[in-house]
Amino acid sequence: MDLGQTIKEIRKQKGLKQNQFAHLCDITQAYLSQIENNLKEPNLSTLKVISNKLETPLPILFFLSLDNKDVKPEKAEAFKMIAPSVKSLVNQFFVAQ
């Protein structure tokens, strides 16, 4: 799961600079940078604030963060085939401006 990268990608899609977004979330830019680089795991309340400010439901953030390592080996091939299409569709509904 690459939650930090997902947060970073959505933030950029929304046209927000890291310092702007950190201010909106009432966290430091350094902390946001650590989150986006997967150096720190934010607590649930911080994740809720981030998802709210990104206007993206928290379960959608988690889903978009999934990768092959998060799927059982026997389902990895199917996930690999459908994930790009499903993520693209979810992105259109919940993330794209």
Written description of the protein model:
This protein is 66% helix and 0% strand. With 97 residues, the chain is mainly α. The radius of gyration is 14 Å and the shape is globular. The mean pLDDT is 92. It has a single domain, classed as lambda repressor-like DNA-binding domains (434 Repressor (Amino-terminal Domain), Orthogonal Bundle), CATH 1.10.260. This is Helix-turn-helix protein. Keywords: DNA-binding. One of its GO terms (cellular component) is cytosol.
Biggest sheet architecture? none
- How much strand content do the residues show? under 5%
Average pLDDT figure:
92
Oligomer: single chain
| Helix fraction bin | 55-70%
CATH architecture: Orthogonal Bundle
* CATH C-level category: Mainly Alpha
Count the domains.
Answer: 1
Q: Note the total helix count.
A: 6
The helix-and-strand class reads mainly alpha
What is the approximate shape? globular
> And the CATH topology?
434 Repressor (Amino-terminal Domain)
InterPro entries: Cro/C1-type_HTH (IPR001387), Lambda_DNA-bd_dom_sf (IPR010982), TransReg_Diox_bact_type (IPR050807)
GO molecular function, one term: DNA binding
Pfam families: HTH_3
Keywords: DNA-binding
